[in-house]
Amino acid sequence: MTDFLRWEIMAGGITPKAQPPDVLINKIFKGYFRDLFELWSLNVPLKDDGNPLPPSCRLLAGWVVQAWEKVPTELVKKS
Asked: pTM for this structure?
């Protein structure tokens, strides 16, 4: 192992305290992303077999950008 790497054992249940982005910021981002997906899913075209067409990579990337833009900057700074 190198001098700048060191293994640490974390107690169970500490993730909410050690990783605030996972707990708060990502939750908010995922909520905004889900809203965009659900809005899209109301009018999604169907394939011949009746299943919905998947969203394009470009559309998904656009949702990611839109959702991140809605996450309050102040929230990210405070975490």
From this structure: 0.70
